[in-house]
Design a protein that fits this description.
The N and C termini lie far apart (65 Å). By secondary structure, the chain is an all-alpha fold. The chain is globular. It has a two-stranded antiparallel ribbon with strand order 1-2. The protein is built from 14 helices and two strands; from the N terminus they run H-H-H-H-E-H-E-H-H-H-H-H-H-H-H-H. 70% of the residues lie in helices and 1% in strands. Pfam families: BPD_transp_2 (PF02653). InterPro entries: ABC_transp_permease. GO terms for molecular function: transmembrane transporter activity. Its main location: membrane.
Length: 310
């Protein structure tokens, strides 16, 4: 592999993994608080269409990102109300929100299907971007790529070093004990879910405004589900989320490079397109073989409803 091809593949891998990093870190915070949010796909879809519509109307991609974040927050608020206030089953509520978000985004986005946005120029960091092989791939990127790195460090510090992060983890491990010493469990879980929804909205905005500046039904293409699997794959650790997201991004990009190379393949091209989802299934099967691996960092109250005593 020559240097130019390596740089191109590394660049594309980072870009493809960025929405997974953002969404999975948001879900990680939500799950560490004990809330299983299966609605990420719908939140991403609503964030993508809202961001595209706002960018198209205003001409500003940053207003689009804010609109996408707002749409993700709104859908997350619906899920939080169902799962935390009404004490609905979190799995059923999350699936309902995912289906609702994907369907509503397809309906709302119909007028924008033949519209394209101007490409957003990347931000090149002087001097560092001149490093051979990796400089141009890592430091001549979109602003949200740099945001995803900052988000990773912020989440890592928050969960490991801050008092608020310790409280959030306590709520996820033993909500009754956290409530007994005076922590507002439901409020903390609401904030965690809303944060996850906001990140899902930003992830969707990245897809429709920065990654492929267009809107099409099915644009999210299962990335919300991959982000959910990624949190389990990472055993609820931020560093593993980052590495796993880029591994999945690399799988996505590899199949595109193979298809674009003109190689004569002995199997259908659709098999290559399914590689990211096959990789997700294989990883989950491998992890599930050892239940102790899943329980290693899994919050004890994950997915379990909690209602404080009156």
């Amino acid at each position: 592999m020559d240097g130019a091809l390596f740089t191109s593949m590394l660049f594309a891998t980072v870009v493809a993994g960025t929405p997974l990093v953002i969404v999975a870190l948001g879900l990680l915070v939500s799950e560490r608080a004990g809330v299983l949010n299966l609605g990420a796909e719908g939140m991403m879809a609503m964030g993508a269409v809202a961001a595209f519509a706002a960018t198209h109307a205003s001409g500003s991609p940053w207003l689009g990102v804010l609109a996408g974040m707002g749409a993700g927050l709104a859908v997350a608020l619906v899920f939080a109300f169902l799962a935390l206030t009404l004490q609905a089953n979190q799995v059923a509520a999350g699936l309902a929100v995912a289906i609702f978000g994907v369907g509503l985004s397809a309906f709302v986005g119909k007028p924008f299907e033949s519209v394209a946005l101007p490409a957003v120029p990347p931000i090149r960091i002087p001097f560092i971007a001149d490093i051979p092989l990796i400089g141009e791939a890592l430091y001549n990127q979109q602003a949200l790529v740099y945001f995803s790195w900052a988000l990773f460090w912020a989440v890592l510090w928050f969960l490991a070093r801050s008092r608020a992060g310790l409280v959030l983890r306590a709520v996820g491990e033993a909500p009754a004990a956290a409530h007994a010493i005076g922590h507002p469990v439901i409020r903390i879980r609401y904030l965690a879910v809303l944060f996850g929804g906001a990140m899902a909205g930003i992830g969707g905005a990245f897809l429709s405004v920065f990654y492929t500046p267009m809107w099409a039904e099915g644009l999210v293409a299962g990335r919300g589900w991959i982000a959910l699997a990624l949190v389990v794959f990472a055993t609820w650790r931020p560093l593993r989320v980052l590495v796993g997201a880029y591994l999945f991004g690399g799988v996505m990009i590899t199949q595109l490079f193979i298809q674009g190379s003109g190689l004569q393949l002995d199997f259908p091209a659709q098999f290559l397109s399914s590689l990211p989802y096959w990789a997700t299934i294989v990883v989950l099967v491998i992890i599930s073989r050892n239940p102790n691996t899943i329980r290693l960092n899994s919050p004890a109250s994950l997915g379990k409803p909690y209602r404080p005593d009156a």
